[in-house]
Design brief:
Number of helices: 3
Number of strands: 13
Distance between the termini: 32 Å
Radius of gyration: 19 Å
Oligomer: single chain
Shape: globular
Order of helices and strands: EEEHHEHEEEEEEEEE
């Protein structure tokens, strides 16, 4: 059994690929490589201010603007390929998980502004509230979704996962998204029935 772990740093774009064998034992060469990278990149140890993700290009295709939770739910239910839902700034207390489940290409859910103070916020019933009803997750995708963008949002207070990419989702982009207070993983992906995973995903929060 093995897994692959990559740590990347921006200065010089130095990358470490570390092979972990078994459950608890790290290969000696991996330890040495990790130590070398830490010594070369003091910013990793000292920390540095978070930098905002660069702006995304404007969405293409059909744009659906929403400004209420009811409009948001309706737009998600009616979503089609090459459609982006743009959410006006505000807090949206979700009455149901936003499910994108079917055969779609190039779809997205974005906040109308990328500024943290005015970003669109989707809220669940609380990370410790097991009586979550219809909102176990924030956004859930699956079926056969080829290319989905989730951007410029705050997603918070869900008992399970704020973002769930189920089997059949490919090429997801999570861009400038603030995830707060999740009962389980902030972003989770599940394999499909044949064991295939979610491929070509990008999380961009620089």
């Amino acid at each position: 059994m093995f897994c692959l772990l990559r740590a990347a740093a921006r200065e010089g774009e130095v990358c470490l690929i570390m092979l972990i064998r078994g459950r608890h034992r790290i290969h000696t060469q991996a330890r040495r490589a990790l130590l070398a990278v830490v010594m070369l990149l003091p910013a990793i140890v000292a920390g540095r201010p978070a930098m905002p993700a660069p702006p995304l290009a404007a969405p293409t295709g059909t744009i659906v603007n929403v400004s209420t939770e009811a409009q948001l739910q309706a737009a998600v239910r009616q979503i089609a390929s090459n459609t982006t839902i743009v959410i006006a700034p505000g807090t949206y207390q979700l009455t149901s998980t936003l499910y994108i489940n079917g055969t779609y290409t190039n779809v997205g859910i974005r906040g109308a502004t990328r500024t943290i103070a005015t970003t669109s916020c989707s809220r669940g019933p609380g990370m410790t509230n097991s009586a979550y009803g219809n909102t176990p997750h924030g956004i859930w995708t699956g079926g056969n979704v080829q290319g989905v963008t989730i951007a410029n949002l705050t997603i918070r207070d869900f008992f399970l996962d704020p973002i769930m990419f189920n089997g059949g989702t490919e090429s997801p982009l999570v861009h400038n998204v603030h995830l707060i207070d999740a009962g389980e993983q902030f972003i989770k992906s599940n394999p499909d029935t044949t064991g295939g995973g979610v491929d070509n995903g990008v999380v961009d929060t620089r």
